[in-house]
Amino acid sequence: MLHSSPITTTNPIVAALASIRQEWQEAACGTSLLAMDGNVGLILADLINGLNLPPEVQAEILGADLFREMQDLLDAAPRQ
Question: Domain for residue 7, yes or no?
Answer without folding.
Answer: no
